[in-house]
Predict the structure.
Amino acid sequence: MRAPALFVAGTDTGVGKTWVATSLCRALAARGLRVGVFKPAETGCADPDRPADALALLEAAGSAEPLDAVCPYRLAEPLAPAVAARRQGVRIEPELLAERFAVLRERHDVVLCEGAGGLLVPLAAGLLSADWVEAQGLPVLLVARVGLGTINHTLLSARCLGARGIALLGTILSAAAPPASVAEATNPEVLADYPEVRLLGVAAHGKEVPESIVDVVWARLATAAGP
């Protein structure tokens, strides 16, 4: 039986996606679950043996999986994976990603897959991240920054998922505390008025995701995974 899995996507780059993913890994592992992690492609790797995001996920999950199983493609330039791969003379194979991901789901109780940037970032030639998520049948946890511009980015991402029939488990806003601007102070209440966003709350960047949010994500994931 395959383990339930989710895809952690950002509304943009640098929104706190890896921090949220690692925090969730720690919380689920603390509940006694065998947590698997997957980073299909990581870019901006000065050293391909030290991909920062993939290693952070492995550590947070307490996983002993080999790096190649967890992050098959580590690319030097900080670009969209498909672009970085093409410039490096590498071909990202969606079939390989699916195979590695399937193995992880057989070995664990739950698997968290972290994307690169937003949903419409090119992952491989002719393949957007959202295309791969849809093909894998994965629900999405969306991470957005709390500041100026996030209303537009978050609604676009949520509605993109809805148009594709991809389940949105919820949206977490990543924030510094206290709010540094009027936008940061008001955006959470504005986004809460849009049911398609499924706002879970605001989590202070650098601190663990609140257990109340973890509870909701886990319950919704179990429902989305089905029997």
